[in-house]
Amino acid sequence: MIAKIHSAIPYGYDGHLVEVEASTSKGLPAFNIVGMADKTINEAKERVRSALTNSGFTFPNRKLVVNLAPADLQKDGSYLDLAIAIAILTVSNQLLPKDSQNKLFVGELSLDGEIRPVRSILNIIETAKLLGFKEVFLPINNLAQAQLISNVNLIGVKNLRELFLHLKKEAIIKNRIAVVKNNKTVVETPILDHIRGQEFAKRALTVAIAGHHNILLSGPPGAGKTLLAKVAANLLPNISIDEQISVTKIWSLAGQTNDIISKRPFRAPHHTASKTSIIGGNRTAKPGEISLAHHGVLFLDEIPEYQRDVLESLRQPLEDKVISISRANQKVTYPADFMLIATMNPCPCGYLGDPYHECTCSRIQIENYKKKISGPLLDRIDMNISVQKVENSQLVANLPISNQDHLTAKEKIKEAMARQYSRYGKPGFYNSSLSSHQVATMLTLTKDAKNLLENASKRLNLSARSYFKIIKVAQTIADLAGSGKILPEHITESLSFRQRS
Known about the structure:
- The chain is 38% helix and 17% strand.
- The protein is α/β, with parallel strands linked by helices.
- It has a five-stranded parallel sheet. Strands 1-2-4-3 form a four-stranded mixed sheet. Strands 5-8-9 form a three-stranded parallel sheet.
- It is elongated, with a radius of gyration of 28 Å.
- It starts with a strand and ends in a 5-residue tail after the last helix.
């Protein structure tokens, strides 16, 4: 007799169906697993044997072979433990084949039969839904995250014995609704009203977030560049359900969480981070920081301090909003639609142009410092802002601090994004997402605005990419102002946001 049980494993950003086949035959008692299984799955033999025995079941005293199909698909992790156990119960006639028909099983087994949670459950549930499975049995601790996927009958299970009695219809598991964990720890994060002065920089940050534009903040130490970047995390709009699913999938794949991501990500890797940790990779092609920042912000503080090859590797995902990772055994494409916020000093010592401190850097040192960020990378940054130091006397003026400016900016950002959704009809599609062709066909500039942009383009020797980025930023400014067309004043302000020192 051969038993066939269905399961699934994550495969890149998606999932892949795995058919677990079990067969017994005459011969000395043995338990073998075949089908491109790695060490983790081979160790499942001991986990499954112990879980079955300790749950009160009989382990077959015959030669037992478990095949994981397709045999040419590399499989790792503990996702298939539960399916292997059900296959063994079926082939040994403790369960009937009809008991597991049109059902998918996933979960790790402990030695006493408890079903433990696994990573990347959303990939597996989406695969089951796509393939039309009527029921999915999964660890109860994965239920909260899995319930983000609608129109799938999810049954959270505590242990192997409970699942057996449910399949035999002796003790039906009632519908369980997982309780989403709330982090009660209150962390005070900065808001726009906490920043003294810097009206130009705060306006630029509002425009950048409203249109999802990449922004570089340049200025001396203590000017408030890092504080401005952290404020961005509070100005981001609420995350939608579809975006929640996408972000949670990536974080689960990276082993960052088994819970639901309810806020837009704000990732701030240290400048010593490797290219693999930023882009993604290693042996299993895990997602990196740019994918963990999907639908959120990637913050690179003191961007010239990052390795040159790390920065250059950002050029393609900044343009395409995805990253493809190729390894010997697989090629994976992850989404990487993030907003880049970067900061830098004007020179190595930080005081170039500061009226209160003398710059100690030579011209060669300054040039070499600026060359750490290549022209093509700078060209992909929509807004380049100079942040000047605020007088100390202004830092404690006009206390106490309210949150009115922050709330006003957040409401304007929300309204501007609503106008973008009305214009493009795609959630999560911003002015910055437009291609050059879409800019030319979908956005409207007045005649005076066109003439102003043409003159500025010739005078500043703008590249084609910079030319279109100025229009896209100007459209965001128009959206914030509630204007249906791009006016000359919008072009003027957009040009002021592309300073080059």
